[in-house]
Design a protein that fits this description.
Blueprint lengths: L3 E5 L3 H13 L3 E5 L5 H7 L4 E5 L7 H10 L6 E5 L4 H9 L4 E4 L4 H15 L9 H4 L4 E3 L2 E4 L4 E4 L2 E3 L3 H11 L8 H7 L9 H15 L9 E4 L3 E4 L4
Parallel strand pairs: 1-2, 1-3, 3-4, 4-5
Antiparallel strand pairs: 6-7, 7-8, 8-9, 10-11
Amino acid sequence: MSPHILVVEDDHSIATGLALNLRLEGYSSTAVADGDKVPAAIEERRPDLILLDLSLPHTDGLEVLARLRTAGDRTPVIVLSAREGEHDKVAALRLGADDYVTKPFALAELMARVAAVLRRATPPAAVEPPRDAAQESPLVFEDIEIAVATRTVTRGGSEVRLTHLEFELLLYFVRHPAQVLSRTRLLRDVWGLKAGGSPRTVDNFVAQLRSKLESDPDHPRHLLTVRGSGYRWSASE
C-alpha cells in the first residue's frame, strides 16, 4: 500500500493543492481543516506522515503536536507555517516535529522532504538486522550512552527522548567522529535532500541535540561548531 499522509490545513486551496500533488507522487491522503479533528482522522486511518499547519482554528498546530507526542504518538510530522519566527521553529522541533517548512514553499522541495522523512521513518521490510549489529555494544561518550540496536539514548543513566530525525542526526555525527561536516552534507546525507533545504534547519536540530545531551548547551563538549564550515563530533573536549 502507498504511504498515507494526513494534511492538517485550514486554507482550502492549499489543502486541495497538496492533496493533488501527493496523489501525483503516488501517496494517498486525507485532509482536515481543524486541529480538533486530528484524533478522529488518525483513528479512522493511521497516517504514515502528517503535514501540519500551525495556524488552525480551535486548536493550533503546536498544541496538536504536543498532544500527539504526549500520547506517545511518534508519527512523523512536517510542520507547515507562514510564521518565520525562530521561536515557532524551535518550539515545533522541541515538541518533536521532524521538519519545518515555511510558507510559501516550492512544491518540489516539499515533496522531496516528504519522501526523505518517509524514507527515514520506514524500516527495511522483512529484513532482520545482522547479528553483529544487534549485538553491537553501546556507544559511550562520558555520560552519554547510545544503543544503536534499540535506538535509545541515555545521559547520566536517564533516558533522553529523541525524535527519529534527531537520533539519525546524532548517529551520523558519532559515526563520523572528528570530521568537519558541512550543513550541505548533513542535509544531503541525513535529510536526504540533494538540493534545497535551509541551513537553519540543521542549526535548529543541532541546538535541540545540544539542549538534550550537553551539560552546558552554550559551551558544548561534543557537538562543536566549526565557524564558517559546519559541525564536528568530539568524544570529549
